[in-house]
């Protein structure tokens, strides 16, 4: 085969063929025949519930700034850029957009211009489609991103990826990977909308072997409707008339099961417990394991996203500073469990009374920063000024409140 013939055969392929080898049909990059984009995907309630749950959960967590000095982690006042990252967004909206980009496109790009050793002047989440090209710089120290015809280095752009394969510059997009699953759900919604919207299927039919005129057929239909609509009177049929009910097929009756299976597939892809997006089937939950499922949701679903965003923002800060999401509210137990846990920690000397009061959003009291020990079998410790019992002491630098 000549080179010219090979080139001709390659050019004869549709230009819309996708790299996943799913289909080569133009404008329909999945078997369902539906166009799946970031906008049409939100027509699927399962996708909207899963993506918004991830974005809302992470965005509601407070973002705290800390500094490590002399082996001790100190909490620092929150700078203005971590309160209002730009002129148009709050920190909630900024993190929410970053999570949406990660959950839909598998990557998020943050524009944060800064000088060495200083905080960023602002932070903005860029749409992944704006990043046209990503290449390695000449010295191999960072990537160069082409945006609107301008090149930006890693000093100004920070990329966050969800699933990034080796030697790849952009992560796998969940929207691309699940477009068949999402497309099937959209196709079902379209079919049901047309089925009930057009209303072309009658509820029943009157059959007869005799030949009747259109006027007679209309009289029969109207007479039947007037006699039996919203009534359950006995029907009297003469002249060989037969009444037949029209029911949906077995495939139509199982559509609800197929729709629930799609919800489970989407929840599985995002590692979200099915009950958290109001799905049915697939697992059973009781009160006891639903509470533990909430902890597992933070640990196995939210925590990886939190770490990615924390690392990305921390790289924009001075070397000794680091940010972290405070997930205490998600892991928060009921009141009696918290009180018992705090009591044990106070009596064992691992927590001061004021630290326990801080967890409950209560004001500290004088002398509450001192530690005591009251465990059975251990020597009791006292507080400052008590000459009978030795004191353990207080933090070298009391926790900031």
List keywords for this structure.
3-stranded antiparallel sheet; 14% strand; 401 residues
Report on this model:
There is one protein chain. The chain is an alpha+beta fold and about 400 residues long. Helices cover about 35% and strands about 15% of the residues. It contains 11 helices and 13 strands. The chain has helices spanning about 5-10, 45-60, 90-105, 175, 180-200, 215-230, 250-255, 255-270, 285-315, 335-345, 355-360, and strands at about 65-70, 70-75, 105-110, 125, 130-135, 145, 150-155, 155-160, 205, 240-245, 320-325, 370, 395. It has a 3-stranded antiparallel β-sheet. It has a 3-stranded antiparallel β-sheet with strand order 4-3-8. The chain has a 3-stranded antiparallel β-sheet with strand order 5-6-7, with no helix packed on it. A hairpin with a 2-residue loop joins strand 1 and strand 2 (about 70-75). Helix 2 (about 45-60) packs across helix 3 and helix 5 packs antiparallel against helix 8 (about 255-270). The longest helix is centred in the C-terminal third of the chain and has 28 residues, at about 285-315. The chain starts with a helix and ends in a 7-residue tail after the last strand.
């Amino acid at each position: 085969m000549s080179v010219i013939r090979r080139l001709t055969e390659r050019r004869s392929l549709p230009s819309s063929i996708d790299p996943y080898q799913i289909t080569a049909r133009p404008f329909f990059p999945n078997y369902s025949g539906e166009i799946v984009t970031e906008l049409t995907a939100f027509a699927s309630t399962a996708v909207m519930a899963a993506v918004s749950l991830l974005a809302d959960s992470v965005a509601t967590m407070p973002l705290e700034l800390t500094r490590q000095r002399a082996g001790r982690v100190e909490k620092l006042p929150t700078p203005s850029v971590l309160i209002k990252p730009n002129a148009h967004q709050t920190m909630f909206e900024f993190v929410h957009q970053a999570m949406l980009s990660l959950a839909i496109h598998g990557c998020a790009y943050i524009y944060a211009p800064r000088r060495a050793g200083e905080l960023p002047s602002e932070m903005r989440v860029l749409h992944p489609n704006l990043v046209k090209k990503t290449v390695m710089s000449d010295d191999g120290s960072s990537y160069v991103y082409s945006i609107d015809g301008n090149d930006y280095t890693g000093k100004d752009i920070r990329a966050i990826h969800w699933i990034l394969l080796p030697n790849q510059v952009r992560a796998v997009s969940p929207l691309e990977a699940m477009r068949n699953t999402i497309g099937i759900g959209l196709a079902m919604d379209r079919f049901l909308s047309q089925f009930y919207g057009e209303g072309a299927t009658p509820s029943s039919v009157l059959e007869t072997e005799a030949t009747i005129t259109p006027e007679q057929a209309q009289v029969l239909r109207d007479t039947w409707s007037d006699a039996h609509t919203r009534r359950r009177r006995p029907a009297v049929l003469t002249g060989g008339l037969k009444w037949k009910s029209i029911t949906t097929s077995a495939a139509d009756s199982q559509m609800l099961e197929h729709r629930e299976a799609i919800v489970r597939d989407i929840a599985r892809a995002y590692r979200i417990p099915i009950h958290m997006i109001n799905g049915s089937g697939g697992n059973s939950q009781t009160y006891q394991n639903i509470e533990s499922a909430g902890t597992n949701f933070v640990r196995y679903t939210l925590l990886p996203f939190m770490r990615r965003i924390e690392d990305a923002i921390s790289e924009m800060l001075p070397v000794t500073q680091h940010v972290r999401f405070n997930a205490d509210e998600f892991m928060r137990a009921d009141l009696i469990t918290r009180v018992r846990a705090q009591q044990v920690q106070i009596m064992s000397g691992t927590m001061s009374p004021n630290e326990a009061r801080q967890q409950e959003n209560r004001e500290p009291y004088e002398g509450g920063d001192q530690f005591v020990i009251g465990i059975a079998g251990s020597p009791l410790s006292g507080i400052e000024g008590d000459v009978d019992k030795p004191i353990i002491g207080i933090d070298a630098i009391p926790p900031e409140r």
